[in-house]
């Protein structure tokens, strides 16, 4: 309604605000008379508002005022504008109920359809202070003033070509005073009825020059909200350059990524993407990144529109950076990215190498092993010029690719200790995590990190402290080797305990890492196994935390006999056990080294009933070959009911049937094999074992004429049947848990077991089993040998364990 109508209504009530007196006075001074037709229209709206009081609107349309006819009048209006623009007009939650002559709910130029869209921006202005869900990080973040905080956009200063595809956040535009911003807002509110797309773009561009400390006031000003509404109305009238200019102004004005108006801009840019140039597309993507606004639809259009054949180095690196920040790379783009990356590899600057590695890691883009090796070769050649951030990014890529680049890892043993004093918590965490993922135990790297961390423990997020504990525990670094590390990180976990409410996976990660090295903080274990925490963790179905809870619960049951705290309920325990067994049946149980060991043990011991393939401790996530012997070494049928394992036996081996007699075969003995067999025989004799009572390995050494060539003939003897009445009690039963290991169970090029597998063997012993290792460096080469050699090896392992 017009100011005249409002004035008459308020005058009847005897309550005329000063703002309306000023407006009417201005109209009288400048000869502006009420338009009769407009007044009739406003009276009709007044009547409708009385019928529908819930949709009351206050309209202010300067086009109702006649233009001044004299230059002096124009000067007076300018003076009035300058006088009125004395401060920001801030919208409050009850803004629509307040009397304010700049409160514009709609414009007569806008259709009802447009108004429905524009009202989103107007009604949700309060969202300007609310971050979007996808960027809502309730976990403590490193301080903006953190001296160790890296700049992930530093690569954009490597080449001048980045100027056309990125926004340099370190170069703010020249600042304007707040008085100038007020004049711009007031002018926009007066001229809004005739604003063009170019006007709106220019107003927003200038407002983007406002000093950072004043931008929050500008964003809350009702006239700025009105300007945003007009930017949406003019979306299709903006040129590509103007549209990008407006988006850049939103960056400098720190517009919230949750602001609903940004959705309209994303839709417009998505539609325009096929007509935009590659630099424009990359710049738009970079501006969205600066706004911290996820725009998956626009990025998909970018990937569909991009032409890689003529892409330069800067454009390629920026594209991979955008892929990483968007956490996605279309599968059909991977091959083309790899081709052009290899073409430009020699031209990359050290910081660009780090950016490419980070982009591939974040987008989970799997290049070929050759391409990753070439990229890390390039990183190795310039490692001395790399920043700590770039070096850590290479480690992240290796962690994702599971590539053991030996030369790079060796140089890290020199680089990391040298750089550690200047690195922050996150960088140190990623170095340690990469080492654990690659199973690379380097004391030079890990001890330098361990010495640095206690002084930084207060800066650790829950994610940092828990992943560090996991890394050191996985690599089997005992607390005795670095006691301050474990105690400080556990203290950091307690300090950030509230974060586990939102990130339960971090608590489980940290506690498992501690369990690997026999550390059990009971207060944190009680929290992790509490019904409330378990319920919250199991709701995160995408993380499958049930396995971690199961492992933790089983560990508590075995290693803390005095425990009186909460335990995992039966149902989730059984569900996790079944899930792990299903996986084992389709994967671990079918591995050739396991099947061969099972088959030969059956042959050695006398039948399928003497070997059981199962998960003795299901929570340790791997299988065992279970064998029972009496005290004299005679094999006994495995009675599943005597076992305490959760998983029932579903099926036995699918290997060949038992052969009663092996044909005489000649097998060349190695010196090591002969030594093992002879020592095994000598060790067994004092225990009363003889060839007649033990399963067969009847050995006969022969010497050929004139040649000291040793050969072995192996014959499988018949083992006497073992009746159920002969079954000894559990106290005299010797239970063997035979482990068929592979290299993934050990640290890289080492005989040091990884944390989970070391914990399993410890817990098997606690449960009353003797652990027999078929080490991969011994068993795997034998798989290509004759059967007699394999049987002799197994005989030595089984009966050597009786010592």
Overview features:
51% helix; five-stranded mixed β-sheet; mainly alpha; 803 residues; two-stranded antiparallel sheet
**Strand coverage percent:** under 5%
Which bin fits the share of residues in helices? 40-55%
Characterize the biggest β-sheet: 5 strands, mixed
Gyration radius, in Å: 38 Å
Shape: elongated
Brief digest:
With 803 residues, the chain is mostly helical. It contains 33 helices and seven strands. The strands form two sheets. Strands 1, 2, 3, 6 and 7 form a five-stranded mixed beta sheet that branches. It has a two-stranded antiparallel sheet with strand order 4-5.
Please, could you describe this protein's structure?
With 803 residues, this protein is mainly α. Helices cover 51% and strands 4% of the residues. The chain has helices spanning 3-13, 18-29, 36-51, 71-84, 112-123, 178-191, 197-207, 215-220, 222-233, 240-252, 261-272, 278-291, 296-305, 313-326, 331-344, 350-362, 369-381, 388-401, 406-419, 425-437, 443-452, 462-474, 483-495, 504-516, 522-528, 531-538, 546-559, 570-586, 592-605, 671-684, 755-766, 776-782, 787-800, and strands at residues 612-614, 624-629, 635-636, 666-668, 711-713, 734-740, 770-774. Strand 6, helix 31 (755-766) and strand 7 form a beta-alpha-beta unit. Helix 22 runs antiparallel to helix 23 (483-495), helix 22 (462-474) runs parallel beside helix 24 (504-516) and helix 27 packs across helix 28. The protein is elongated, with a radius of gyration of 38 Å. The termini are far apart. The model is unreliable at 20-71, 77-86, 92-140, 642-671 and 680-728 (pLDDT under 50).
């Amino acid at each position: 309604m017009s100011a005249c109508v409002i004035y008459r209504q308020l005058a009847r009530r005897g309550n005329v605000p000063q703002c309306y007196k000023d407006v009417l006075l201005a109209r009288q001074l400048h000869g502006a008379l009420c338009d009769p037709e407009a007044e009739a229209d406003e009276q009709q709206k007044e009547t409708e508002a009385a019928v529908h009081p819930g949709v009351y609107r206050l309209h202010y349309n300067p086009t109702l005022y006649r233009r001044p006819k004299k230059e002096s009048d124009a000067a007076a209006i300018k003076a009035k504008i300058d006088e009125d623009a004395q401060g920001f007009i801030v919208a409050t939650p009850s803004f629509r109920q307040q009397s304010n002559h700049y409160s514009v709910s709609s414009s007569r130029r806008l259709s009802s359809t447009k108004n429905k869209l524009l009202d989103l921006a107007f009604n949700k202005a309060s969202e300007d202070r609310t971050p979007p869900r996808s960027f809502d990080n309730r976990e403590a973040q490193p301080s903006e003033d953190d001296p160790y905080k890296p700049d992930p956009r530093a690569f954009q200063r490597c080449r001048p070509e980045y100027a056309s595809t990125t926004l340099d956040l370190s170069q703010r535009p020249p600042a304007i005073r707040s008085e100038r911003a007020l004049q711009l807002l007031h002018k926009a509110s007066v001229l809004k009825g005739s604003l063009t797309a170019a006007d709106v773009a220019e107003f927003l561009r200038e407002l983007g020059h406002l000093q950072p400390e004043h931008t929050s006031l500008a964003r809350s000003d009702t006239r700025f909200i009105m300007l945003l509404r007009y930017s949406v109305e003019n979306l299709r009238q903006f040129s590509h350059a103007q549209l990008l200019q407006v988006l850049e102004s939103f960056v400098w004005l720190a517009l919230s990524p949750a602001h609903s108006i940004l959705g309209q801009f994303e839709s417009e840019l998505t539609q325009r993407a096929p007509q935009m140039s590659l630099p424009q597309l990359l710049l738009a993507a970079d501006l969205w990144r600066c706004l911290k606004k996820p725009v998956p639809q626009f990025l998909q259009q970018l990937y569909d529109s991009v032409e890689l054949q003529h892409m330069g180095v800067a454009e390629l690196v920026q594209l991979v950076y955008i892929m990483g920040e968007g956490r996605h790379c279309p599968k059909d783009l991977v091959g083309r990215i790899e081709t052009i990356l290899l073409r430009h590899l020699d031209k990359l600057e050290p910081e660009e190498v780090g950016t490419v590695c980070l982009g591939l890691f974040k987008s989970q883009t799997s290049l070929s092993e050759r391409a990753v090796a070439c990229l890390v070769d390039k990183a190795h050649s310039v490692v001395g010029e790399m920043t700590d951030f770039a070096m850590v990014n290479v480690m992240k890529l290796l962690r994702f690719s599971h590539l053991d680049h030996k030369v790079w890892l060796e140089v890290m043993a020199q680089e990391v200790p040298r750089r550690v004093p200047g690195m922050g918590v996150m960088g140190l965490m990623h170095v340690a995590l990469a080492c654990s993922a690659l199973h690379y135990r380097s004391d030079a790297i890990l001890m330098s990190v361990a010495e640095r961390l206690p002084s930084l423990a207060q800066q650790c997020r829950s994610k940092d402290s828990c992943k560090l504990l996991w890394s050191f525990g996985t690599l089997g670094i005992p607390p005795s080797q670095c006691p301050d590390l474990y105690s400080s990180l556990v203290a950091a976990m307690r300090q950030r305990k509230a974060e586990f409410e939102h990130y339960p996976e971090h608590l489980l990660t940290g506690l498992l890492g501690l369990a690997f090295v026999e550390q059990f903080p009971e207060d944190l274990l009680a929290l992790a196994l509490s019904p409330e925490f378990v319920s919250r963790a199991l709701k995160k179905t995408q993380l499958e935390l049930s396995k971690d809870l199961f492992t933790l619960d089983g560990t508590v049951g075995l290693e803390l006999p005095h425990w009186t705290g909460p335990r995992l309920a039966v149902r989730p325990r059984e569900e996790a056990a079944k899930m792990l067994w299903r996986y084992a049946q389709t994967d671990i149980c079918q591995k050739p080294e396991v099947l061969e060991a099972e088959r030969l043990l059956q042959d050695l011991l006398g039948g399928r009933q003497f070997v059981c393939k199962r998960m003795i401790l299901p929570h340790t996530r791997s299988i065992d070959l279970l064998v029972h012997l009496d005290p004299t070494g005679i094999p006994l049928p495995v009675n599943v009911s005597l076992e305490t394992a959760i998983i029932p036996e579903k099926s036995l081996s699918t290997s060949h049937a038992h052969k009663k007699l092996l044909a005489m075969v000649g097998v060349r003995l190695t010196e090591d094999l002969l030594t093992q067999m002879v020592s095994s025989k000598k060790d067994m004799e004092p225990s009363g074992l003889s060839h007649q009572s033990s399963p067969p390995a009847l050995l006969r050494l022969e010497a050929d004429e004139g040649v000291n060539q040793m050969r072995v003939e192996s014959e499988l003897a018949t083992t006497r049947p073992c009746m159920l009445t002969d079954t000894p009690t559990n106290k005299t039963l010797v239970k063997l848990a035979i482990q068929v290991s592979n290299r993934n169970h050990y640290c890289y090029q080492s005989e040091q077991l990884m944390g989970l597998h070391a914990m399993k063997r410890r817990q098997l012993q606690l449960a009353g089993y003797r652990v027999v290792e078929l080490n991969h460096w011994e068993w795997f080469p034998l798989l290509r040998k004759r059967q007699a050699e394999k049987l002799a090896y197994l005989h030595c392992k089984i009966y050597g364990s009786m010592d």
